[in-house]
Amino acid sequence: MNVLITGGAGYIGSHIALSLLQKNHRVIVLDNLCNSSPLALTRVEALSGKKMTFHQGDIRRRADLNLVFSHQPIDAVIHMAGLKSVNESLQKPVKYYQNNIAGTLMLLETMKQHQVKKLIFSSSATVYGIPVKIPLCENCDTGNTTNPYGASKYMVEKIMGEVVDAQPELAITALRYFNPAGAHPSGQLGEHPEGIPNNLLPYLFQVANGLRSHLPVFGDDYATPDGTGVRDYIHVMDLAEGHIQALNHLKPGYRHYNLGTGQGYSVLEIVQMFEQVSGRRVPLDMRPRRPGDVAICLSDPGQAKKELGWQATRGLEDMLRDAWRWHTQNPQGYVAQPAGSEI
Ligand code: NAD
Ligand code: WQD
Q1: By alpha-carbon position, which residue is closest to atom 9 of ligand 1?
Q2: Bridge partners of 171?
Q3: ipTM score above 0.95
Q4: What's the CA-to-centroid distance between 294 and ligand 2, angstroms?
Q5: Which of 18, 135, 180, 331 sits 20 to 30 Å CA-CA off 300?
Q6: pLDDT tens digits for 240-299?
Q7: Ligand closest in space to the Cα of 229
Q8: Which of 334, 332, 338 is CA-nearest to residue 39?
Q9: CA-to-CA separations, 253 to 106, 238, 283, in angstroms, rounded
Q10: What is the CB < 6 Å shell around ligand 1?
Q11: Distance CA 132, CA 336 (A)
């Protein structure tokens, strides 16, 4: 298949691009590089030994999309392009709705114009908002979101359902990721957030590296076994494989699936496992709860197993080991190597 990945230069998209190339699909990437580096794609090509097509452009621009869809036939789209910072979305909601919703509308229009019928969308467990039931299954309530980022994912899912109602020949699957973590085991692909990390693992790695003195632990009085927040971390390679399975099972209609492991870990369990894996110590700074956080966010991944034949196979130790390898080998993220050196 010719698969277009919007946002394919990003953290998750680059891992999906690699998995697709390894399965002999042709990969086309459209990315405006607002939060990524083209070096990720160079590394994907080196790891796979295959070429892909890269278009630098923006999903909000009709001309950019038309150029990509006219350049070669597209059989399916994996739509990853989006902004993802919860904090930033609270400060700049219009930017988030513009990018994540208006960009998606432009993509849907272009797909219709070019008669492309298959789409996989990067959604998020954030659509469940404050969980009313744990573990979260696909028929749990959505929409009770707590920030513009989450609302944008919820609204896009809703729009996609309505578009499929109007065009039943479309096959759209939304994948609700829980907490993506880890990196490619080669240490060549991974996540490198700019500035002060918001998420637990990037922050923890910077403390372990000596870049920051302490890991803030946001709340130790939750109703969890050790009082700290529990999350369902999922290895980015498991996520990538989930997309391949979703692609293989696409059929007309709108569907959504959780991509998680179903296993939760607390902040303190993560720190403990990381110290074992890395041999580094992570000094902690106990802080009050972070506004907007929930005690536990955990998936029931049963539906993806049943209908897509997919389940996560990697555990927390793999996620931490692989992400730490990436982090130690690429402390500055994607940086051009001197001429002649290996990537
Ligand atoms: P990322 O920022 O690394 O990747 C997103 C990519 O989209 C980047 O390469 C960015 O340059 C590109 N992009 C953004 N706006 C664009 C636009 N208007 N036009 C073209 N390209 C654009 O993030 P990621 O972690 O790889 O996330 C990928 C997707 O998965 C996002 O939609 C995100 O909301 C979703 N998601 C991520 C997480 C997570 O915790 N990482 C969890 C759930 C869902
Ligand atoms: C995990 C746990 C924190 C940082 C976010 C988004 C969500 C999704 C994934 C995209 C919590 C605690 C964190 C720190 C800490 N993204 N923590 N110290 O909040 O579950 O999910 O990323 O869709 O939408 O909200 O992930 O990694 O920020 O936090 O104690 O420095 O770690 O309180 O319990 P979260 P996280």
Answers
A1: 10
A2: 118, 253
A3: yes
A4: 9
A5: 18
A6: 999 999 999 999 999 999 999 999 999 999 999 999 999 999 999 999 999 989 999 999
A7: 2
A8: 334
A9: 20, 24, 49
A10: 6-7, 9-13, 31-36, 58-60, 80-84, 99, 103, 122, 124, 177, 180
A11: 46
